[in-house]
């Protein structure tokens, strides 16, 4: 049995530290797990697409995690694929370069006993950027090299919310066209598991024979209107042959913040617009 820690959506910031205490509690609890690696699945930042300081702060936080750390970007790190949640923060070459400079690779392969985990940059799917084609070629190669292994795909956004045939674009998941292309790629391998964050809820479902695991957030509760457990925490996955056990860890003292309350019930549209709340004052 091999254990892997998954931390998702911590939303760290040197100036807007609302969730800093949650990060510290999760970081310390995760360090006590005998894990092969720690995956940080996107939205490391609040305003990463436009802030060197935020990305540098997130990089410093990651450096204090023990062992092998495998981060992936989210929309709060490098911007969204078009049309996006915020038209002023669409993924582009400059934002990708900021991630490269401060964090490093935006895709990776990690092999366990009988499993291959492939981490990809969800914000590239449907972006039209040159790196999208590069990632697709890389994914094809990694899936070919992983023949004989069970494969788990890790990305920030889920492939879909309820059904793989969802036809309307949504900020909650990949777009219909890039999703269809990705699914065709995945069918070439023994894909068993898709792990995503983004929605700030925990859900674990098998759809058409493929298991889809949504990770909880370390920052704030998921919004209303979607099924799942909205409480904050992190996941520990136990890989043991065909079986993957999932434990959701909620360290004592972690707070499932209400985002609407933090944004003062509509006074601020985005967290980055809020008055400063440095991490040392956030508690």
* Count of helical stretches: 8
CATH superfamily: Metallo-dependent phosphatases
Question: Percent helix among the residues?
Answer: 25-40%
Tertiary shape: globular
Task: Characterize the biggest β-sheet.
Answer: 6 strands, mixed
Protein name: Metallophosphoesterase
GO molecular function, one term: hydrolase activity
Walk me through the structure.
- By secondary structure, this protein is of the alpha/beta class.
- The protein has a single domain (2-282), classed as Purple Acid Phosphatase, chain A, domain 2 (4-Layer Sandwich).
- Helices cover 26% and strands 21% of the residues.
- It has 8 helices and 11 strands.
- Strands 4-5-6-7-9-8 form a 6-stranded mixed β-sheet, with helices on one face. A 5-stranded mixed β-sheet has the order 3-2-1-10-11, with helices on one face.
- The radius of gyration is 18 Å and the shape is globular.
- The model has no long low-confidence stretch (mean pLDDT 96).
- This is Metallophosphoesterase.
- Residues 3-201 form the Calcineurin-like phosphoesterase domain.
- GO terms for molecular function: hydrolase activity.
- It holds the Pfam family Metallophos.
- It comes from Bosea caraganae.
What topology does this entry show?
Elements: E1 2-7, H1 20-31, E2 37-41, H2 52-63, E3 69-72, H3 75-78, H4 93-102, E4 108-112, E5 115-119, H5 130-145, E6 150-154, H6 176-186, E7 191-196, E8 203-207, E9 210-214, E10 234-240, E11 243-249, H7 259-262, H8 279-282
Parallel strand pairs: 1-2, 2-3, 5-6, 6-7, 7-9
Antiparallel strand pairs: 1-10, 4-5, 8-9, 10-11
